[in-house]
Structure formats: C-alpha cells, structure tokens
Amino acid sequence: MQLSPHYDFPIIVSIDGSPSDQCVPLVRQRRRLEDLLRGLSDEQWNAPSRCGTWTIKDVVVHLAGVNRFWQASAAAGIAGTPTRLLGGFDPAATPSMMVDSLGSITSAAALEMFVSSNDALLATVADLDDTAWTVVAESPMGHVSLRLVMQHALWDSWVHERDIMLPLGLTPAVEADEVRSCLQYAAALGAALSIGLGQPITGWLSVQAANPSVIFAIEVTNLVAISELADGVVSVTASCLQGDAVQLAEALSIRVPLASSAPHEWHALLGRLATAFDTPSEAG
C-alpha cells in the first residue's frame, strides 16, 4: 500500500537519546556488512535471502539504492530544504521494481554500488554537531529529525544484514547500541504507520527486553513518543512486551512470529505494519 507521510508539525515521532547517538552504530554496521560481503563466494551472492524471491545480491542492490535516498534526504535537511519525495511511496512494490530495473549485474558491481553509496551517505553526516543532527529531514514516516532518519537507515540495513547472514548459516554480530536502536525504531515505526493508516493503537505500551537490556515506554496519541526507562521500571498499566531483544526486534520487523502470549496491542500494532508492507504479520 502507499504511504501517507506526516510532513506537518509537530513531528510525528520522538525517541529519547543523544542527538548524535546514531552515528557510531550507523558507520560500524555498514562497514561490517561491507567486510562480510567482500568474503562471499559467487555462489553465496546468488543464494536466497530471507526476503521473498530476492537473492543476497538483490538485497545488496536494494541497500545501495535506498542509501541514495538517505543521502539525499540528509543533505536536503542539513541545507534547510527537507525533501517530500515519499508521498505515495509503496514499501512493498517500489523496492522490488528498483531491484528489477537494474537487471543482471555482477556481484562485484553490486558490492561497488553498496560501498560507494555508503561512502556518500556517511560523508554527508560525518562531523555533524548535535544541532545538525536535530534538523528536519524526510523518512518514510514523514518529516522527522535527521537522527531518526539515520535510525531508520540503521534499522533497515541491520535487518537486511540478518536477511543475508542467517540463510548462509552465519552468525550476525550483536552490538548493544545497534539492537537498542533497531528495537526502538521498529516499535516506533509500527506505531506511526498505525496513525497513518487511520487505525492508531493509542495509549501506553512498553518493552522490557534482555540481551542486551532495552527498556522503554511508548505513548501513542496522534504522535508517537518513546521514553527510555531505568531497569525494572515499567508501568503496570502499559502493555509490556517482554523477551530477548534481538528476537523482539526481528518480530517487530516482521521477520519472525511474535509470541502468541504477547499483549494483544502489540499483535494489533504488528498487523498495521504488515498491512503497510503487504507482508503477513506472522512471517517466519
């Protein structure tokens, strides 16, 4: 389905944290994935990923393509002229069309595209001060802070890194700051898209995850606000999602089923995300 980004003020999503806290994990995750890809054989490049009919190479081509959007969005936001490119964007159909449009390319060409697009993106956000990280830029949710645009970019690449590695029998790295960022963003994205669909899951939700410890609350009104909580501090009135942090991030990214014992509000929120991405909410 087509997205309906929120371009008006107030900004639709806020997430607790330092303005520049996405920079280190953003760089680390992309460089790590580059190193992994350099070591793959041609057979592995053409092996199936977790993304439907996409091969590993298709996933990398997709990441290179969306990097160009992240870079353009960041540059426009820093310049004070945030883009409005995603009205009517279909997150289910458009990425596949982008990959298909390139036809057959070599694994070496796909890797070069990915590395060069990473270089351009990371150069755009290098050496920014905290004020620059708070400028408004475009994400699939609409106009948010540049920090949240890069948080979406990290989440997308982190999930796709796992889409590449797990089918190959490889063990993905687990970095606490990356997991925290991706789990929080996946939760925020589902809540924001529920508002965009006109079917918001309003009220208070919370997450209490382990390995690493990630604890936060979400308030959903006509906006989404995520607040980090101290260990053991979870509202008794909030629908609390509990479990392993990586597995919860995977579930909220529609990669593994959400436990049937999870609060019904979380199943409803995941259903809204699945609707937006035209994906079964219990994908395995």
UniProtKB/TrEMBL annotation:
Can you say what this protein is called?
Unannotated protein
Name the source organism: freshwater metagenome
Question: From which lineage does this chain's organism come?
Answer: unclassified sequences, metagenomes, ecological metagenomes
Q: Which InterPro entries match?
A: DinB/YfiT-like, Maleyloyr_isom, MDMPI_metal-binding
> MF terms per GO, please?
metal ion binding
Q: A Pfam family matched by this chain, by name?
A: MDMPI_N
* Domain Mycothiol-dependent maleylpyruvate isomerase metal-binding, chain residue ranges per copy: 28-164
